[in-house]
Design goal:
By secondary structure, this protein is an alpha+beta fold. 23% of the residues lie in helices and 38% in strands. The strands form three sheets. The chain has a six-stranded mixed β-barrel with strand order 1-3-2-6-5-4. The protein has a four-stranded mixed beta sheet with strand order 10-7-9-12. A three-stranded antiparallel beta sheet has the order 8-13-11. Residues 97-180 form the Large ribosomal subunit protein bL25 beta domain. One of its GO terms (cellular component) is ribosome. This is one of the proteins that binds to the 5S RNA in the ribosome where it forms part of the central protuberance.
Length: 208
């Protein structure tokens, strides 16, 4: 994805406030050289932030006629308004090693024996993974094939086929669960157990 940034010459709380009033977002680009103060069109950035790829892939930033590859590193939103307050990007090159969360895209769930034959539902324990890799190897997402999922057997991190050069950061957990099939009978028990509790609350409200 490509976006256009403009050089920001003024800094400070007052200057940033005036930029926001003018429909701009103050930002900074750091890494691989001197930090650069930038500003972006608010509406364009706001809509870009709604796209998954803007968060999890390399971006082409055009600044002063030069295109540089960057990663979105952070952004701040207004406490209650749909307004982006500030944005941070990191410059990257062929030697930059990064740690970043990427989304998981699941496929084949409906065709798996757990769902198709045993009528289980699939509980997605995690929907993204934190990985380390060279910036140039960063995948937009990681595809997880669930077509072989069977009843009673969860899918773990070690079961996922990762592209070369990519390692998952597990923060001390040896082999975290990604998805697990849940029996329909187990779901019925959970619902049945929750129903009396809800009835008790209703009865309690009627007491003085």
């Amino acid at each position: 994805m490509k976006f256009v940034a403009f050089e920001r010459k003024l800094q400070g709380t007052g200057a940033s406030r005036r930029l926001r009033v003018a429909g701009k977002v103050p930002g900074i680009v750091y890494g691989a050289g001197e930090p650069a103060l930038i500003e972006l069109d608010h509406n364009a950035l706001f809509h870009a932030l709604k796209k998954e790829a803007f968060h999890s892939s390399l971006l082409d930033m055009e600044l002063n006629g030069t295109v540089t590859q960057v990663l979105l590193r952070d952004f701040q939103m207004h406490a209650y308004k749909p307004q982006v307050q500030h944005v941070d990007f990191q410059r990257v090159d062929a030697t930059t090693k990064i740690t970043k969360k990427v989304p998981l895209h699941f496929k084949g769930e409906a065709e798996s024996p757990a769902v198709k034959t045993d009528k289980c539902t699939v509980n997605h324990v995690v929907t993204e993974l934190e990985i380390t890799c060279l910036a140039q190897q960063l995948p937009e997402f990681i595809e997880v094939d669930l077509s072989g999922l069977t009843r009673g057997h969860s899918l773990h991190v070690n079961d996922i086929k990762l592209p070369a050069g990519i390692k998952v950061v597990t923060h001390g957990k040896p082999n975290p669960v990604i998805v697990t099939p849940v029996d329909a009978a187990a779901e019925e028990v959970i619902v049945a157990a929750a129903a009396p509790a809800a009835d008790d609350k209703k009865k309690g409200k009627g007491k003085k």
